[in-house]
Amino acid sequence: MRNFLQLFTFLFCIAAIAQQVVTPAVLPEKTVSDTYHGTVVKDPYRYVENLEDPTVLSWMRDHSNYARTQLDAIPGRKSLLDKFFEFDSRVSSNVSTTRITENGRYFYIKFRPEDDNGKLYYRDRYQGKEKLLFDPETYRPDADVNYVINNIFPDKKGDKVAVFVSADGSENSDLFILSKDGTRFPDLIDRCDYWGFSWMPDNESFTYLRYNSSDLKDVNRQINMKTFLHVMGSDVDQDRIALSADTHPAMEIAPKEIPIFYYDELTRRYFAAPVTVEKNYRLYMSENKTPGLPENWVKVVKMEDEVVNTRTDGKYLYVKSFKNAPNYKISRLPLDNTNSPAETVVPESKNEVIRDFEVTREGLYYSTTENGVESKVYFIANGQTKAKRLELPFTAGSIDLSNVRSDLADIWMEITGWTSPSKRYRYLANTNTFEYEPLSSQAEYPELDQMEIKETTITSHDGTRVPLSIIYKKGLNMNGKNPTLLYGYGSYGATFTPVFSPILLNFVVHDGVFAIAHVRGGGELGDKWHKAGQKTTKPNTWKDAIAAAEYLIAEKYSSKETLGIWGGSAGGILVGRAMTERPDLFSFAIPEVGAMNTVRMEASPNGPVNAPEFGTVEDPDEFRALLEMDSYHHLKDGVSYPATLVTAGFNDPRVIAWEPAKFAARLQKVQAGNNPVLFYTDFEAGHGIGDSKSKVFNSFADTFAFALWQGKHPDFQPSKKVKMR
């Protein structure tokens, strides 16, 4: 049924292109006003927040159909899409979400070129025979939706595996259990978060985190969430609460905090962590020696400890912290005496930021980055205090560390870079050697020989030096006429380290220049870098991007006629405020599922949990910061803004669809001149997480085609000029 509908949609689009397309109407304003701390804020499109309003839905669908027709009419879009699939066909299998049990059983999600969605596979040890356990296309096949696997959690022996699946990008997961031979148990739990899961000591029960509602637009969906305990074979409606504000008042779990509960098999202890998007969190521990849920908890990590990550072995709790160490340090404290002072194991480095760490039977491994673009790995053997830098198989832009348990010697490193496809190695400490252990197949990309990488720093508005990565074809003509896409994010302390991407390669192959601004608000230069682009300092985020744009123009990579800016989710703040502050600087802008109306963010289901990152309107200073970063409220009548492609996912649980919708409506209303404003809502998608492969490729084809069109690439110019309205 779904394939038929896709074919019908495709044929309909072809027919629509052949006809004259009617430009949809601009949505009328209906202004309401709010007063925050003495400031009156006018909101002309508040009614768009009602995503069940027939007028709003009709407007969204009309503009989505119009945008779809215009994007499909860009001559080079098919070339981009074909290249995505051609690159994909070079890799016979692509593996992700690998889970390895203590007895060497592997569970993982694998894509083949013919697969639109990843499937769950199992093998007994690395060299074992592969077995298909679950194909999401067989899950509720009569439903007219696309299911994907969000996450998997095998039990400690790999006899069973918990599987989370969700439909159409909603991240609203169903949870069920499979045996290692693929037999499905009758237990089925809906509206689950796909991270808050833990097997209990008996391997016949587990805890899970559940949303209050399956309605993605319910503002109370994530308020006062609960973790439940389920015994396999029992009635889900009888599941006990394992962790919540009501059952654990001493933990003072706030309504916006998410109660994470898990059992650590090695230490035989339970841990609880109320979390938000804030990096640091508090951690509780219980050493329960009787059957059932623990009752007595001890706080082992406080918020003021500024801990962002923890690991355990049989004796110590290891913590990564930015307390008095903005580039991070690693400390440890005895599990039997957590009140004792923490012992520093890895002190803060002046020039390198600690990214990740793992503990094994042989010692402690940790990775660092410098300027966010050069990665290294260090090893401290047990009984030693000095770290040894490991000589990697090749220069790394990014490194992912993984192990099974800290009482085993196994450690794997996945290494990649802008022009280095990812490779997975097992490191053997006793011989100081790397063994290549691929799970994904390897492919050849001769196109990489054409690529040039420049890592530099540029001067921002206040004199701060900001890292900038520029990727382009060798022999680029520095004449200022190259279509250039500037990407930025700058939130949550997230770091965009170099990774190989055939998707990015496709843009460069098509004569584009791709630049990544490592702006403040990210984590490339540690915690201080994050805090320098957060709440009241958030303007540094888009001002850093503006400085990067000015550099690209000054150095003749691009010009105001060929330069565009792109970012998604929280990166929508960067894009929206850069284009509203300097509309003259960009030819085009692409805010993708972006946070465009931050003053109203807390009125959305995912808003309150994000207040620690962006601020709350309840605080006068933070309200002013939210208003300053609000792109929707910075649109002005009669300004010629860049050509803009605004996107939304109707099932988006992270940035509700009305945020980009309000921005698009207002931009279409105020736009002066003829630069097009396209608004595309995918009614079968969410935030982009869990999309099918074909949907991902089509989305990037839209982005790159729009960029090359507005970047003046001659092969991407439609025969007819797109009208604004």
TrEMBL record:
Domain Peptidase S9A N-terminal intervals: 29-433
InterPro entries given in the database record: AB_hydrolase_fold, Pept_S9_AS, Pept_S9A_N, Peptidase_S9_cat, Peptidase_S9A, Prolyl_oligopep/macrocyclase
Pfam families cross-referenced by the UniProt entry: Peptidase_S9, Peptidase_S9_N
Gene Ontology MF terms in the entry: oligopeptidase activity; serine-type endopeptidase activity
Keywords: Hydrolase, Protease, Serine protease, Signal
GO biological process: proteolysis
Signal peptide location: 1-18
GO cellular component, one term: cytosol
Record-annotated Peptidase S9 prolyl oligopeptidase catalytic domain positions: 510-709
Protein name, entry field: Prolyl oligopeptidase
